[in-house]
Amino acid sequence: MYKTFLLVGIGGALGSTLRYFLGLFLKSFSPVFPLGTLAANLLGCVCMGLVMGFSERFNWFSVEWRLFLASGFCGGFTTFSAFAFENIRLLQTGDYKTFILYTFSSLVVTFLAVVLGLMLAKLSW
Q1: Which one is predicted more confidently, 82 or 112?
Q2: Alpha carbons 94 and 61: distance in angstroms, whole number
Q3: What single DSSP character describes residue 54?
Q4: Domain residues of the chain, as ranges?
Q5: How many Å apart are CA 34 and CA 23, to the nearest integer?
Q6: pLDDT at residue 125, rounded to an integer
Q7: Residues 6+ apart with CB under 8 A from 31
Q8: pLDDT (tens digit per residue) in 36-89
Q9: Cα distances (Å, whole numbers) of residue 68 to 20, 28, 49, 78, 114
Q10: Which of 83, 77, 55, 60 is nearest to 8 (CA)?
Q11: What is the distance between the alpha carbons of residues 78 and 62, in angstroms, rounded to a whole number?
């Protein structure tokens, strides 16, 4: 039980740290649109699709590795709580165009990113 908490915690810490640096890097490209959060959600969803897809297809990852990668790393890396907060701020400032674009991109494109990860996992390498 303690091993599970440790694996998820370490994975989450690594994912959160990478998300933070990605956000800092991408903020210079788009100071208004929350590009860092969107990029983290997209990459995290592809990662989740790959981890789970390879686990199902090849049984590559043990339960411990799946917890570390999916629950820990991807859970720490993806940022739907930040997504919700940033959308509230966009609404409060009346930036409805960015709100609609950001919400659509985050909700629709991230689902497609998971499908992409699952499809990539099914390719013969």
Answers
A1: 112
A2: 46
A3: H
A4: 2-122
A5: 8
A6: 65
A7: none
A8: 999 999 999 999 999 999 988 888 889 999 999 999 999 999 978 788 889 999
A9: 19, 31, 14, 14, 18
A10: 77
A11: 22
